[in-house]
Specification:
Strand order of the largest sheet: 1-2
CATH superfamily of the largest domain: MetI-like
CATH topology of the largest domain: MetI-like fold
Number of domains: 2
Strand content: under 5%
CATH class of the largest domain: Mainly Alpha
Amino acid sequence: MNIIKTNRTRSLRARSMAEGAMRIVFIAAACACILCVALICAFLLANGVPAIAKIGPLSFLTGTRWKPGQNIYGTAPMIIGSLYVTAGAVAVGVPIGVLTAMYLARFAGRRSYRVISPVVSLMAGIPSVVYGFFGMVALVPIVRAWFGGGKSVLTAALLLGVMILPTVIRVSEAAIRAVPDHYYEGALALGASHERGVFFVVLPAAKSGVMAAVVLGIGRAIGETMAVIMVAGNQALIPHSILDGVRTLTANIALEMGYAADLHREALIGCAVVLFVFILLINLLLSAVQRRRA
């Protein structure tokens, strides 16, 4: 008996030590993530804010001319272009993504799921430059033939709408599957059809996860660079139509950072600060909406 108690005690001590070690590993991983974010914030603020102050916050954010050769740095065309392209991508990708997630989670049979699910995973792994090449070869001629504008806001929005689909689908599907089955079963018991139970009971119960999917999709769309460069036209002008060419903040940074110096380089980092603030505001808005609905 004493031997058994001794073995149990050793086993409990070993398990306790293993749990303590893993707790330290998890805390270290979390601290590393926080440190990375803090370093990025410090770099952006230290290099971008002084440039914005030197140019003038109002001139930097509302100026409509971007001419580095003349030390004119107005980011309004890029800000508006980023908002237009992102809004178009959300309008295209979110409805399709959420409906696809609902189909995979509640409607698809085993055979359909085995076909569609790997395709969604494959879409998530396709490099953005491949999407951009597809947009140049396929979407640009189609948009030009149907609407009269080739490289434009519309083309970039359509392409980004396709690119955010895997993110929206996967996160929304996980949120819908996480809804307890008794929600759906209760709806059926009250006389609802399968479709009404899914759309009016399960989907509202998964709204927090679906909103998180939307925010992740927005982050993917507003932060995309290469594909947008290849299909958006890259004109540093305020677009007056969805068929006009446009330059986003990310495209502006990527196109000019290679040869930028001094104030020009700092102004580009200022564009990154503006982009970072946009992402931060979107996440804060999501948190506020979730707290209000909770």
